[in-house]
Amino acid sequence: MGRTRVTLADVAAASGVSITTASLVLTGRARELRISAEAERRVRSTAQELGYRRSTVNAGPRAGRTQTIGFVSDTVASSGWTGDMVKGAVDAAYRHGFMLFVGESGGDPVVERALADAMRDRRADGVVFASMYTRTVTVPDGLYDGPAVLLNATPATRTAAPSVLPDEVQAGRSAARVLVEAGHDRDIHLIGAGPGTCDVPPHGVAAAERLLGLREVFEEAGAEVAGARWCPKWTQEHGYEATADLLRERRPKALVCLNDRLASGAYQALTEAGLSVPEDVSVIGFEDHPIASWMRPRLTTVALPHYELGVRAVKVLVDLVVRGRGARVPMTHRVPMPVRQGGSVAAPRG
């Protein structure tokens, strides 16, 4: 009988460290994350004792599939929206007969590379590289070694990996239609960015696309966007400050807040000014953050479909795995963002 192959996971377990730490040590990158000399010595010694050899998966043809998928996330996978994305990915993987391995990088490029290598070391059939917020990413070299899909991310340079993204342009259109259909055609103000698609915070991929959709529908309907307040961060504090500053100059009929935390801050500023939502001012947001359901009245918002994003990413990846590298697949897959109706939009008075 042949000798059982020693895996990176075996070395990590025997050394008492994580797979990421073991991978960093054995690829010569221990000092990049200041891994202790003792841990480095222990991992190298254990690897030698166990007879571990780094996988050379790509040196020749693979002997069948392992029915496993790697999922590398930049955020804690058990929290909030990321948890929903992972759940969607897990459920989709199960339905297709695959197991999902999840790793968290904290957004650290060194850890991202280590995790990508670790997933390939475990002979994962493919890897989903996920971002909590839509952003442009540098794709780790390890993802070029086999099928990969970018989730909620676009590549900084050209890559063969397709992207699965929320349809933010459509979301902007939907938000604008909610206001137009309620009768709003003037005194509409944007909170967070705009009015141009270039007037966005750094790395504001979602902002630019939301503004594009908003502007398209407003222009078609002949609705006036009277102004916009740029915010360096999309937090409740900045939403409050931007709205309070606006109210010192004029009273809007409607506010389009580029996310729900901005909308929460706007609510507070409106309340302090003696104005009611939606009787005096209509407010709409984006993302369907948990805070939206606690606002009174409940915020009308356009939801980020985190669960569906996870499902779609795995489906696209499984298609690549099953059909092989030569498979022709669209490079960008857009997932619809549904409107979550609340009580924050009404016909304008007067």
Order of helices and strands: HHHEHEHEEEHEHEHEHEEHEE
SSE-based structural type: alpha/beta
Kindly, what is the distance between the CA atoms of the first and last residues, rounded to a whole number of angstroms?
86 Å
Q: What do we call the CATH topology of the domain at 168-303?
A: Rossmann fold
> Beta fraction of the residues?
15-25%
Largest sheet: 6 strands, parallel
CATH class of the domain at 168-303: Alpha Beta
Percent helix, as a range, is 25-40%
Write out the strand line-up for the largest beta sheet, numbering strands in chain order.
2-1-3-4-5-11
List the total number of helices: 10
Radius of gyration: 24 Å
pLDDT averaged residue by residue: 87
Low-confidence stretches: 56-63
Shape: elongated
CATH architecture of the domain at 168-303: 3-Layer(aba) Sandwich
Count of individual beta strands: 12
Domain HTH lacI-type: 6-63
Pfam family, one: Peripla_BP_3
Organism: Lentzea roselyniae
Protein name: LacI family DNA-binding transcriptional regulator
